[in-house]
Amino acid sequence: MAEGVKIDVDTFCKRIKKLHEHWQVKREAAWAGANSLSIVVGASSEDLRYLKSISLQLWLFGYELPDTVMVLTKTELHVLTSAKKAVLLQPLSDRCLADTGLKFTVLVKPKAEDGSTQMRQLLDAVRAADESPAVGVLPKDKHTGKVSELFESLLAESQLPTVDCSAGLADLLATKDPSEVLNVKKAAMLASKVMKDFVVPQIEAIVDGDKKVKHSKLSTLTEGAITDPSTHSKLSTLTEGAITDPSTVSVKLRAENVDIAYPPIFQSGGKYDLKVSVPSDDSPLHDGVIVVSLGCRYASYCANISRTYIINPTKKQEDEYGALLAAHEAVMAGLVDGAAIAGVVDKAVEVLKSKGQDHLVERLTKNLGFGMGLEFRESGNMLSGKNEGVARAGMVFNVCIGVQNLENDASKDARGRVYAFQIADTVVVPIVGKEPEIATAGCPRSWQKVSYTLKDDEDGGEDGDGDVKLEDMTNGGVPSRKTLRSDDPTYKSAEQVRKEKQEALLRQKNEETLRRLTATKEEGGNASTAGRVVLDIVAYKGLADLPLMKDLLITVDQKAESVLLPIYGVMVPFHITTIKNVTSNQDHDHAYVRVTFNLGNSYDPYVKFPNSIFLKELSFRSSDQRHATSTVTQIKQLRSSVTQRDKERAERSNLVAQERLVPGKKVFKLPDLWIRPTFGGKGRKLPGTLEAHANGFRYSTPKNETINVMYRNIRHAFFQPAENEMVTILHFHLINPIMLGNKKTKDVQFYTEVMEVVQTLDGGRRNAYDPDEIEEEQRERERRNKINHEFSQFVKRVQEVWEKDYHDLGLEFDIPFRELGFNGTPHRSAVFIMPTVNCLIELTEMPFLVLSISDIEIVNLERVGFNLKNFDLALVLKDFSKDVVRVDAVPSKSLETIKDWLTSVKIKYYESKMNLAWKPILKSIIEDPDGFIEQGGWEFLNMDKSDSDDEDGEEQSADYAPSGSAEEEEEDEDDSDSDGSVVDSDDDDDGDASDEEEGEEGLTWDELEEEAREDDKAREDEGDSEGEQRKKKRGGGGGGGGGGGSSGAAKRSGGGGSGRAPAPAAKRQQR
Q: What gap in Å lies between CA 145 and CA 64, rounded to an integer?
């Protein structure tokens, strides 16, 4: 055995227990009454062998153990093997007894002996297990080697009765657990990828180039065993390792786990035998009907696929293939849990007869497929009318329908007169209530994708284009040589195909919207917000709690979190949460303190007690400027600390408890990473190390700052290698938010810089051919490639852990598709946004954009017009209570790419010439979902239909549309961008609110006054008339102010009821 091999103890115990229980329960029905089992595996062989004894070893141990004898009784499990393999099996003995109740005994065959002594001990154990022993054996498994031959001879000499237990073992292995099904899916994915991205291009290149390539040569190329590099060297380079090296077809599977299930089969030119055991012959590939079959194995689990490609088909062949494909899909659809296998086979015959293809029924293959797994062909699960069994969840079938010996009388070529069809797919039987899963669906089988129309030169005339390639022919509706698109009735432009798919999505989308909104309305649950309620806040419970004050001074009570203000000779307490802002302003020998209180509809007491009178602001004058400044500072610090504490409390109150991190036995590490968002606190930030443990990630820094990200809390994981960016990124979008520092977040990012973001410029111009410059660029490339490789290796190892232990989560690192990316502005700055398999993301700049495709309801492309360089993207989420996600200023050149991507991921989109106010729209839909659907649902966004309805009434006025000068057009465009827009006004309010909060933490009144004085003084020095007018306006503006305030304070407070102090007059005029 190879070094580092280790048997999974948990899997072994679970499966040996399943074997023992199955054997005891179905001993008479399936195991032929055997009361002990004897499984023998002989010497190893390089040939492809599918033996039940080897399959059982792979199922139990994960490896084939040559020259090993295994005997199972009711209470004991005995294994005879060599010394090296005995060391590998020894750790199983203790756990086996504890978990299954079976005593596990390992017998070691001495190296210098034949093992006959130990074999007799095994036979004695069989005799002791039962008074009338019956040994279950596998008589059809033929092994070679001294160990197997000696044990078989000793078993025969012992005269112990034997029975065939093949049927019981086949029934046991027929149903696969989730990990086994995952291995089958990986093998099927590889098979479909090789067929689609390797076999089909090869056939197209051979036929288009009129090359002579043997079937056997194609089989060898596909298998990856290139024996003659001199022939078709270019093809050899492209095809080497197509199956045995999955990376050649962009499949991320470990090559050591991959193998062929059988040599790939290519058949054409009138010679067809649809058996899997038939090898490819030496006849050259014929451009008629080409049948291709290939099988792959991943971790010893098999998958199969077959496709038929037809060149220059006739109408008869099209009808026959269509009927066969319909029968094939009927069989696959019928393979559900509990379905009778014979009934499923009968469906195929019924479909063929209903299509008027009775002659195909006579030419059908004997069986329509078989079960698959560790054995390529499970003899007990044949898809035939004689099989009385039923399909069970977890079974895997190779549904293979073929017809042969068909004749094409219209063919002028003798090799093209006889042909055959075969279609095969790997199908997984689902649990009750779900449809069967076609694991090889990645390779298309529709008529448009397997048929090619390639006219001969003599048909095309002298003007035929000899450079036209096969892939440019009518594969999927593209016209053939010497035919125009207008002559082909089946031709559809990309825009037409896209519109048809979008129309099909409309009804589905409306039904989903109605169903979801109706369910939400019935539940009627309103999400509660956690945190402290303002109405429950009490400064002091009674007068006795008030502190004793000697002087009437503004006092801050840190313990009670209150501020005591002198009003009419009485100290009145105010809790700090009632105060909105406090400012200080100095005027000669006095200081003015202005206290602004919370007010308005956003303040809970104001809404609950609408008839009460609330203080808006108070102004105080003090002769002690130092005390005034100190008091304002204390109030601001208290307000900031209380607000921050309440915010953290509110965020932590609804956090979901995470599981405890389990340290892994083998920990993968990625050092020197930075984290975003950053940890809270002051001080210099340091990079840390990301570790992958058994059930989650742990990131730690040298300052003992740690954060755990559990695997089960990850919704999406992304790996973005550095190409055009300065950083390589690992990003996790979580299901439930976690606390990072003092903030709650659902996005955690780990990154490292691949080059210096800030570079020192020496001011001199450097030559493009400067050796130092070239060497520096080379170092940067090497560093970028090295970091990308380190991240890639880390991702690959973590992915293997997920596939092994967390396959139920379906976690996978998504890599963005750069070719589908586009520029846009989702927040404040323009960034490059890229789709992935499951999301639309932007991870380079904060705040991040991570939008799951499954959360998107519809997309509206706004401000789309021929005269505009940009448009906006409005993504409406399925949760209508959330704001619409907007991406503004998307270049118009990305419009078609975005449309194609949205159609490919089955998202309905619309176009409009202006922005829409989405809040009232979504509110009306939530209030009346039935009425929304009755009025056409989302079709109200279809501007094309509304334009066509009004076309008759506007036809005359549309005929005359005078165009003004260039300046007028620019003004109209500006107006359309501003006045013509109906964007939500709430967004502007939010922006003002955020500006107001920023203003509170910005310049003080002293700084603003000083800045205004300097501006005014500069204008007075200039002495122009415009400056005089501004000076007069500043002196006369203002209004009545708060009580007790100076004239400056009165001017500022008289600016309106917004509660926000406007800037000094000089600054306002300048703006």
A: 15
pLDDT tens-digit series, residues 145-176:
899 999 999 999 999 999 999 999 999 999 99
Distance in angstroms (rounded) separating the CA atoms of residues 114 and 116: 6
Distances (CA, A) of 1054 to 293, 435, 1049, 1060: 85, 70, 8, 11
CA distance 881 to 875: 13
Q: Which of 993, 1042, 996, 1034 has the alpha carbon at shortest distance from 1013? A: 1034
Distance CA 732, CA 746 (A): 8
Total-model pTM: 0.50
Tokens coding 239: 């095809």
CA 861 to chain centre: 24
CA dihedral sign, ordered 824, 827, 833, 837: negative
Residue (of 577, 539, 588) closest to 560 by Cα position: 539
Contact present, 208 and 837 (Cβ < 8 Å): no
Give the C-alpha separation, 226 to 238, whole Å: 11
* Alpha-carbon separation of residue 736 from 658, 659, 745, 807 (angstroms): 9, 12, 9, 20
Rounded distance, CA 226 to CA 236, Å?
7
Q: Where are the beta strands (DSSP E) in 102-196?
A: 103-108, 135-137, 162-164
- The helix/strand/coil state of 979 is coil
Please give the backbone phi and psi of residue 718, each rounded to the nearest 5 degrees, phi first: -130, 145
The one-letter amino acid code at 723 reads: E
- Which tokens belong to 39? 């499984």
pLDDT of 740 above 60: yes
Pull the structure tokens for residue 304: 């199969």
Tens of pLDDT, residues 585-609: 888 888 999 999 988 877 778 777 8
- Strand arrangement, sheet containing 822-824: 822-824, 831-835, 839-842, 849-852
Cβ neighbours, 10 Å, residue 134: 18
Q: Which amino acid belongs to residue 1069?
A: Q
Q: Which helix (H) or strand (E) holds 53?
A: helix 52-61
**Pairing label, strands 562-567, 570-575:** antiparallel
Q: In sequence order, which ranges of 335-443 are alpha helices (DSSP H)? A: 341-354, 358-362
Residue 877: per-residue pLDDT: 93
Of 29 and 226, the one with more pLDDT: 29
Give the whole-angstrom CA distance, residue 426 versus residue 409: 34
- The upper half-sphere exposure of residue 791, i.e. CA atoms within 13 Å in the direction of its Cβ, equals 25
Mean pLDDT of 711-718: 94
> Coil, strand, or helix at residue 220?
helix
- Least confident range from 16-30, 106-120, 293-307, 526-540: namely 526-540
Q: Over the stretch 957-1007, which tens digit does the pLDDT of each residue have?
A: 334 344 444 444 444 444 444 444 444 444 444 444 344 444 344 566 677
Q: State the pLDDT at residue 603.
A: 79
